[in-house]
Amino acid sequence: MNWWQRAAWWVLAWAVAAGCGAAWLAHERLRALREVFDTDARIAHRLLSQRMVQHDAILDTLALLQPRQPAQDSWKPLQRLYPQVLDAASRDAATGKAWPAHWPPGMAEAERRSQASGHAELALAALAPGRLFLVQAGVPASHALALDLRATIPADEWPLPPATSPVRAWLALGSQVFVIQEGAAPQPGWPRWSRWSWQAGKTLASPSQPLVLHLRQTLDASVLPWGAMLGWALGSALLLAALRTLLRQRVARRRAEQLLQLGQVARLNTLGELAAGMAHELNQPLTAVLSSSQAARRLLAEEPPELDAARQAMTQAAEQAKRAASVVGRLRRLVERPGLAPQEQALDTAQAVAEALHLLEPELRRRQVQVQVQAAADLPAAQADPVAVQQILHNLLINALQAMDDQPPAQRHLLVALAHGGAGLRIAVQDSGPGVAPEMRQRLFTPFATGRAQGLGLGLTLSQSLAESMGASLALEPSPAPGSGACFALRLPLAQPAP
User: Residues 458, 399: contact at Cβ < 8 Å?
Assistant: First the structure.
């Protein structure tokens, strides 16, 4: 399975999780809003029903308390108590006097219906201007009320604030409609779903005023919990990303363990190569130990014995023995685990070069090589393994000395240059030999590739491995002038400042 196919499966899983979570959140929000809508509808119906029933109670009270011919201003207290009452009238049934002329013509018919039913009847419903006319037949007088529907709405108890509520409310009687509130306009920028709405309709609990209360709420996208849905999508993405990272780390850990096992097998398979390299590396210090020991024995055998020179020779032999032990320990760590091999620390490169030249001082005198060291002032310390750096410098210097064997003694020049270049230190070793043949440049660092008859071809390979193990690099650089020999540069990282 390709990486993009695996990524597509993870994206699909995220899309399913995000979609299901968002759908559940939207469903819960809509369910909560629907419960609020139903509750408000019940409250609005109860309040309006109470007001309509109150109108019937007012007419019953008038029939009991009012005289046959009330005074002109006798309705003022009633209007103060009930602001929806616009006017009131009465008619003495015994005299046969008609209802006032400014009242609607259906008053007499409503009075007859009231006599038959025993309760108030609706004489006229003019819902467009918001007017209702009720008649209550009685003895000795019948009474009537002119009502204002707008004042009938209990503003202090109304559950749907007209300025902010999106619910449209109206009263209907047949084809007539009285709009209580239009409902707040939808928020700009959100699509309005005209076909998705909630509706409720119920007749008011008054036999004299059979008005039907209608409520409708049209939904738009703003009612959905976009913040919660976006948070859920982001949270599910982070959760799946963390799960994918854990799975990838688990696979990577298993792969690393397998590679480690393969690396152990590979190191065991290259044990013969390491043994040859160890022989190559140990040959030089052991030879120096033998030479120093023989020189000390000759100095002690003389009459009188030269004790100071013998002590110096034995000291050099001890240093070479320690160097051999360090080489053996480092190669053993390489066989065990590569990560444990480098013993890096802050290293004075100038001191390291001086020690390497000091070890080869007898060879330099014997071969009559003129050595020049160029070191820049105030060189910072390098971060490297001292034993590895000594081994690399020793291999480079030995190769340089052997490359100048065919040159006349007067033309044997060895240059060691130390400089601070970029983000590291550069140690260059240049000889005055014939240089590296063109056919050898491509496989210069290949194991067992050598241009000398008695060479093993492991010195540069092991030196490059040592350099890479501590974050350094070893390369053949172009010579400054044609015919000026070979120039190998070791680049070491700078030492990290102490925390």
Answer: no
